[in-house]
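Here is my example:
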Amino acid sequence: MEQLLVNSPVTQDNKPKLKTEDYYLSELAGTFCDPIIAYPGGWSDVIPDWLKQAITMERLLMNMAAISGKDPTGTDAEACAYLMTASLDFSFDHDWTQIYLYVAGRVCSKAGKDVPSDIKVESLNDQQMHDLNRLKAWLYLTRVRARQERDRAERRQRKEATAAEHELAQPALFQF
């Protein structure tokens, strides 16, 4: 399998990260098939369709950036969807309200939706930006883990099915 060298940070053992074609194919498939991470509480069905489409488009853009060397992370639209569902379960403090309004404003603006000027947040302070970046990283890792678990379960099921077929085809030499 051909390996592609990615312009990414040097790992702890001073070797550049190598990513295979399978990695990139998995990431591309994940763009369309990975779940949208919502806050647990049963509100995932209220995410609007336009936001789901924005998530897919931003994931595609993130994949293109990752190919050129940027570390992949969650997107603004994914953070907006997560914070939207979380806000339906409990109220936010000042910082998370600012983060939510900042992300929602960016996502809505990209989608051509009007954002009232009295709630639009143009920038975040360093701590708020750090918290947003941590949320995005967590969202990305959570959806990748979900994809990996789903892939493992599929491989396990195929392996068990193959073993069962082989057992049926192979006559038993001794029966006790």
Q: What stands out?
A: The first strand starts at residue 3 and ends at 5. The radius of gyration is 21 Å. Residues 126-169 form the longest helix (44 residues).
